[in-house]
Amino acid sequence: MNTVEAYESDIENRAAYFTAIRGAGGLGAKRIRTEHPTKAAAIAQGSGDNRTMIYAVTPEGRFAHLCNV
Length: 69
What we know:
single chain; alpha+beta
């Protein structure tokens, strides 16, 4: 496991919540906060274009990109 994978794995294992983010940064982005990554991915499935980003967020606010859905 390389350093980036270890960082992402640590964040995912300690996540307080997961978020699905769609759209450009700033005020135009749509964010949905969930307690589980599969719920975030299920919410994003409707778009079908693989452009919704799923992130894990720790209680300290550290985050890691897990996948696109």
